Amino acid sequence: MDGEGSKAKRRAGRPPKLTGELVEELAALVRAHPRGSKSDYVRIFKAKTGVSLSPPSLDKYLASAGIKRAPRGRRGAPAGEADAPERSKRYGYREHHRLQGRPGDFASSLTDAEWELVKDLFGPRPTGRPRTIDIRRVVDAICYVVRAGCAWRMLPPGFPAWEAIYGYFRRWSELGLFEQMHDRLRAMWRQRENLPPEPSTAVMDSQSVKTSPQGGPKGYDGAKKLKGRKRHLVTDALGLVLVLAVHSANIQDRDYGPLLMAKALAKYPTLTTALLDSGYAGTCAERIRSELGIAAEIVRPPSDNSVTRYEDSRQPSLFSPQQPATTFVSIPVRWTVERTHAWNDRPRRLAKDHDRILPVSESWLWFTEGRRLLRRLAHDSDIPA
Fold first, then answer.
1. Beta-bridge mates of residue 234
2. Which residue from 187, 219, 315, 319 could staple onto 197, CB 3.0 to 4.6 Å apart?
């Protein structure tokens, strides 16, 4: 009898590590973030409860709570998981933006309402000899170059001498004037959207672009199979740029990401959350969490099969049926930085990186972003009565 009792005791095995409330807490964590990775679940659960789990144990306890992994290979996303944002008001170039009655102006030139928002930045000198050149025409010429993509020497008649315009552009770039212009306009736009001027959420992503034969730093991006440079952006939740950098395309996102995020945190100490794509997963995200104290979250697209999605069999309504394979589903919040990159491809000057000097390339991005915000902010005041 004693032998049978000891054998039954040995069959029972070790007691389970999680019981009752801990299993429900783990299930609640996965329900809140169904597309997280196993390593994320293990790390967050250990931080909350102090209990360390292995990936097989994680699956076992989730299965006991009725949560299982969805089959891989399915495209599309459930509507409850990645709801498409509401269609906002359309912003862009329209007929009422066109200038009327000013000789020598082009479609890219500033309107009176737009110039009123920034003229103090480019205004007359406080001291020294008075300018003999119309500064507004200089800004209009820079707008023409970035929109038409022409060389400085090919500016149309009516603008000041191209040497003077280029000199002003380089001088303003070195002073960071275009970044100041954008920061002012971004704060105005956030106020218009009933948001605080200082953001709390940052979204980071990069875009690889080709370079022209002009020369300058460049590298080969093996992932995109492209030789050129990367435009690295950190935006807020609205897609408005906080900080940016242009560097060789051979520098990996995971290597430069913590440096750019540290620059964003120094400029905006209110940042608490960073939304990143899978290119920043691993040591990059861990460095942002440990060194900067920012909660870095990897937001993966619904079609990314490198990380499985969990479904709750006890709550069928938690996830809606899959969308067709051809359906585009935007990534929550992180889609805004993708949209910003797409918008920066529209001006012909930015279709490629034509400059030898990296700070000049960054100045073009700041100016383009600020020019876009000028259109938005002056939208209502430009409409003729």
1. 204, 243
2. 187
